[in-house]
Amino acid sequence: MVSRGGDADAGHERGRARVVVRPATDADWDEIYAIFTQVVDEGRTYAYPEGLSSCDARALWMEPDPGRTVVAVAGGRVGGTAKMGPNRPGRGSHVATASFMVHPAQRRLGIATELASHVIEWSRASGYRAIQFNAVVETNTGAVELWTKLGFAILATVPEAFDDAVNGYVGLHVMYRSLR
User: Fold this and answer.
1) Fewer beta carbons within 10 angstroms: which end of the chain, N or C?
2) 73: domain range?
3) CA 151 to chain centre
4) 39 — phi, psi (to 5°)?
């Protein structure tokens, strides 16, 4: 179970650190920015430019209304973050999208699963009809496996659309899940 709204008492234990998902606050930004810079600098999953200032990164990550940015707290520390909202404005605003980042030292602890569950629940409760991920790097096998397990399908793969720091040019999946 993930927390809903600001319910800091909700969480889930799977023989791992308890993970609580809650809305991000201004006080969380330093920890979010640390995760953001590490994930972007890895060059494996996001096309954001390296070396963004805190202000520029914040403008990209902290989602304004009607979207939302959340953090996953495990062991008293922010271990991951997600942002979510409409995939497109206007006539495309009935489909949600989301982006996720987990601190490299806190991967494989269930944080991504908790964040993903929260996004699915929030999107459904907010009236979205579906969720579309526009750019899942095909070599990010952990994410592809998680999204597939949670009911997302790969609709298409754009060949060589991402320059992976390790594997060079690789494809980007467009993934989709109905919420109906």
Assistant:
1) C
2) 19-129
3) 16
4) -65, -45
The pLDDT value recorded for residue 109 is 82
- Number of Cβ within a 10 Å radius of residue 94: 14
Beta strands (DSSP E) in the chain are 19-23, 68-74, 77-86, 95-102, 130-137, 153-164, 168-178
- In 3-state terms, what secondary structure has residue 71? strand
Neighbouring-strand partners of residue 119: none
* Residue listed under structure tokens 């953001």: 36
Is 177 part of a structural domain of the chain? no
Residue 99: pLDDT band (50, 70, 90) is very high
Query: What's the predicted TM-score (pTM) here?
Result: 0.88
Is pLDDT at 10 greater than 60 in this prediction? Answer: no
* Residue 152 to residue 110: CA distance in whole angstroms: 18
Give the β-pairing of 168-178 and 19-23. Answer: unpaired
Domain-embedded: residue 140 = no
- The β-bridge partners of 164 are 168
What rounded mean pLDDT belongs to the chain? 91
Number of domains observed in the structure of the chain = 1
CATH number at residue 74: 3.40.630.30
- Cα gap 122→108, rounded to integer Å: 23
